[in-house]
Amino acid sequence: MREIYLDNSATTKVIPEAVEAMLEACQIKYGNPSSLHGKGIEAEKIIRETRERIAGFLNCSSKEIFFTSGGTEANNWAVFKAAEKLKRFGKHIITTSIEHSSVLEPIKELEGRGFEVTYLSPSKEGIISLEELKRELRPDTILVSIMHANNETGALQPVFEAAEIIKNISHRAFFHVDAVQSFGKVNIDLKKERGIDFLSISAHKIHGPKGIGALFIREGLNISPFLLGGEQEGKMRAGTENLPGIAGFGAALKGLENNVEAHWEKIKELKERFVRGIKDGIRDVIINGPLDNRALPHIVNVSFPGVKGEVLVHFLEQWGIYISTGSACHSRGGSVSHVLKAMGLKREALEGAVRVSFSALNSQEEVDFAVEKFREAVEELRSL
Amino acid sequence: MSGVILVRYGEIGLKGKNRIYFERMLINNIRRSLGDLQGIEVTREHGRLYVKHEDQPGKVIERLRRVFGIVSLSPARVVLLDMEAVKKGALDEVKDNLRSGDTFKVETKRANKKFPYQSPEINSMVGEYILKNIEGLKVDVKNPLYTVKIEIRENSAYIYSTSYLAPGGLPVGATGKGGLMISGGIDSPVAGWLAMKRGVEIIGIHFHSFPFTSERSKEKVVELCRVLATYGGPIKLFVVPFTRLQSEIKKNCPEKFYVTIMRRMMFRIAQKIALREGCTVLFTGENLGQVASQTLESMAVIERVVDMPVLRPLITMDKLEIIEKAKEIGTYDISIEPYEDCCTLFVPKHPATKPRLDEVEKAEENVSDYEVLVEEAVEKAESILVAPKEGVL
Lengths: 384, 393
Ligand SMILES: Cc1ncc(COP(=O)(O)O)c(C=O)c1O
Fold this sequence. Notes:
The complex is a heterodimer of chains A (384) and B (393). Chain A is 40% helix and 14% strand. Chain A is built from twelve helices and 13 strands. Chain A has helices at residues 16-27, 38-58, 71-86, 101-112, 130-136, 159-169, 243-256, 260-281, 309-317, 338-342, 347-352, 364-383, and strands at 4-5, 65-68, 92-96, 116-120, 141-147, 174-178, 198-202, 213-217, 286-287, 299-303, 321-322, 324-325, 353-357. In chain A, strands 2-8-7-6-5-3-4 form a seven-stranded mixed beta sheet, with helices on both faces. Chain A has a four-stranded antiparallel beta sheet with strand order 9-10-13-12. A two-stranded parallel ribbon of chain A has the order 1-11. The longest helix of chain A is centred in the last third of the chain and has 22 residues, at 260-281. Chain A starts with a strand and ends with a helix. Chain B has 393 residues and is of the alpha/beta class. Chain B is built from 14 helices and 15 strands. In chain B, the strands form two sheets. In chain B, strands 1, 2, 3, 4, 5, 6, 7, 8 and 9 form a nine-stranded mixed beta sheet that branches. Chain B has a six-stranded mixed beta sheet with strand order 14-13-10-11-12-15, with helices on both faces. In chain B, 42% of the residues are buried. The complex binds pyridoxal-5'-phosphate. Residues 70-72, 75, 100, 102, 147, 151, 178, 180-181, 202, 204, 213 of chain A line the site of pyridoxal-5'-phosphate (PLP). Residues 70-72, 75, 100, 102, 147, 151, 178, 180-181, 202, 204, 213 of chain A line the site of pyridoxal-5'-phosphate.
């Protein structure tokens, strides 16, 4: 059966170049980067190259990039260690109610340890308000964590403006940005955005492997290590490096180099074609989140009242079309999405929400086929 | 490592002329259950089985505790028929388990009357030997902390001190073959386990409504069968595509009869598969009065469509009792994983709790050609041979 993978914000297919790089790191350049001999040096070079490539992408120093096991670990590191570092100056944290659970859960844990947390709420379109941020910043605010793009709606948050506001009002608070979804789709210039102190990224959203990501930590912040027990990552994150992962990450990034804008345009066209298609072909369609450039080009969240998201997902599956309900992480838990709930969606739209997310590997023809099948599925399901 | 496990079987010893047949079945089931382990030998002597092995005793015991027909078992030391050897063996048996201040007794059974000492003599000789070698112990024949058991048999003596309970029942396969209608819920796996306990070999019949239910809900049923298979060996599972019939029912029948008619279709399909597989009965996890389809009236109307007896091992159990059992046998945690299964999606708001047969039959006629759809579902059922889950044993 043909396979039309439209769940690219959950994860992406690994491109052949990345697979090759990983194979090479497993079978040829398999040394331990810490070893003194040539095999070690060969491996170390892979790590250095990927680190520099990431730094180039973000326009920061390679000394500011620390590999992690993915976005989740990067978020945990940033939240816990930033709070620990500044807790003697205050115990107030600001975040949003639409963060990924790998930010929300660590912050909840801190709440239990006596930190006070303010959750910024999104508009109907899923975007937080800078005015609210301004109002909530206090002298004892020590950490602000706002995601760059939401994983369920694609809505871009005004993090660059937020960075300025935070630095103007509070001289102390750290600012963390979860850029797992936006990395590789939107250019981020960390030399320019000096107000961002931490930034999380992950390889498997950009056609790299799972289980590898990185945290940017601005130089000079003096943050404590996340894992102890070795010299790796400048003693900040001990443990023999995930060499195949890092090699794959590097190769995936290479595919994106000088290509971010072109990518954006291509994917955006696919999404627009899809949205036009379902709006024309199906009655009663609700798009959850912005459709213009205030959202990532590849994610669209849509509800078909009267149709349960979970059923639609499985229905499309029989034609090899893969999409998601809510976000991959809690779509298994059986509860409704905290993001869409925070946006104030009505019950029917909530239960019916599905997320369709494209990548540059999709074609227009695939989109047309998907639209047709969406139409068939929704019609059939509404007739039952 | 080598050892012997003494296996006691109760009920099947009493079955008169069937006894040989049951014992052979039990031995076969034990061999199957231990098939992949090292150096297994099963022998029978005087209404007991002795399982010799060269594997980790813990593993062998855990496996045997899941073989129906076994009542209890004890890992034993085997020594020569010689008084010195018996004394030493008994001392080894207690050495690691008793400390100064503890009380114990020795209990001997002498089946081999040729052995030169009588049971009371053996008890006191062994007791004295132990007292002499471990300081601070006391004999207490009324209420000892610890009992060392010695059995003097034909060719050797067996010494043991621990017994493990096993589920009892009858060897799987000894009483026949039945089709278990299994969902992903809590009840039906327990019903299957109880059927197996009474010696029934089961096949699973599961109704799958893809895409209304996910691949994962099917995986869940496979997983449940994997657990059941740790008790009775590999299980043949039939996954029946049910979507077509379900949609037709939903489109053509009054809402209040969805469930009744759906279950009637399931029973029709189940019986056909069961017959083909050589089963003589159907088992279900139904239990009185929990939901609309489980009232006595509903069951009567549903059961009408089959000739096979429909057995419901859980019929008198409370939900809490079923949950307890499910936890005990290891299916509960799998059953409560939250994937929608086919019933939840087609649940009417006001199901008929006392459906009338004539009304249901009339409503059912609105599903045109349902015999054809039933036949098609039987034909298209996917069969999976489910092996026992590893890592639980
Ligand atoms: C916004 C966001 N943050 C963090 C993560 C977690 O990243 P990872 O899967 O690499 O742990 C994800 C995706 O899973 C995400 O979408």
